[in-house]
Design a protein that fits this description.
mainly alpha; 100 residues; 83% helix
Length: 100
């Protein structure tokens, strides 16, 4: 910048400063746009999204883990072994989903 001010920078210095000024202007415009979108509630913090999804998935998990006992209550002719097999299948699926 000093070289540019004193006239020693030449065209390459002018081009470099222009590129940097354009980059700064674009970054500032992007920041202003993001702030506006956040104020309009078009964007939400990633931590809020993660927290909400964690809550939803905990509810789904709890519901799935309750399936074997609910099925056994509705179908009293099932044996304990049958309920154990259903429970194992539900847990296997939940484990697979949790690992992907």
């Amino acid at each position: 910048m000093r070289d540019l001010v004193t006239g020693r920078g030449g065209e390459s210095a002018i081009a470099s400063v222009t590129v940097e000024r354009d980059r700064l202007a674009k970054a500032q415009a992007d920041l202003a746009e993001a702030k506006g979108r956040r104020l309009r509630r078009e964007l939400v913090p990633a931590a809020d999204v993660e927290s909400e999804w964690s809550s939803i998935l905990r509810t789904v998990r709890a519901g799935m883990l309750a399936v074997p006992s609910r099925v056994q209550q509705k179908l009293p002719h099932l044996t304990t072994h049958d309920a154990t097999v259903i429970d194992a299948e539900v847990r296997e699926v939940l484990t697979e989903v949790g690992q992907s």
